[in-house]
Each structure stands twice: as structure tokens, then as C-alpha cells.
Amino acid sequence: MARAILLTCPVCDATLAIPGDRDDHARPALLEAAADHLAAHDLRESALAIRKHEIASTAQERLLPADDLDDLPTDRWAVPAPA
């Protein structure tokens, strides 16, 4: 079984999977990944800080079969398809 940390953007619902568990990735690394994505949303500095911390605090650690990890967006943020 593989572990991944799932980050979700509260602005556009895009997701990013970071392979590993919370012990492998410190909070500053999660905040950096969130900030990189949020830069594209052109938020004011205060909104950017709030959203960045929201992404890190709502990150979910998942245990899944190794094959399923390959299906997750680990190299870029993936925006969900419109319904």
C-alpha cells in the first residue's frame, strides 16, 4: 500500500497528490505547494495567506494501492472536469 497527501484548492477545487505521509512532508512544504498553485488565482496577499493555510490544514492523508497512486495528479494540480 502507498500513502499520499491530498491537497484541495478551496478556490477552484483542483487537487494535488503528494506521495508519502505527513511525516515525510512538513507543513512548510505543504504551504509552498499551496502557494505555488494559488499564485495563479491572483488573490490579495491576505486572502492568499488564508487560503494557503486552509489548503494545508485540510490536507488528507490516504492509504491506497500502489497502482492507484499512479492515477492521482502528483506532478501538477488537476482541475475537476465540469459536470
Describe this structure in words.
It is a single chain. The chain is α+β, with helices and mostly antiparallel strands. The protein has one domain (2-69). Helix content is 35%, strand content 20%. It is built from three helices and three strands. The protein has helices at residues 27-38, 45-57, 66-69; strands at residues 2-8, 15-19, 60-64. The chain has a three-stranded antiparallel sheet with strand order 2-1-3. Strand 1 and strand 2 form a beta hairpin. Helix 1 crosses helix 2 (45-57). It is globular, with a radius of gyration of 13 Å. The N and C termini lie far apart (31 Å). The mean pLDDT is 90.
In short:
The protein has helices at about 25-40, 45-55, 65-70; strands spanning about 1-10, 15-20, 60-65.
Q: What key phrases describe this protein's structure?
A:
alpha+beta, 83 residues, 3-stranded antiparallel β-sheet
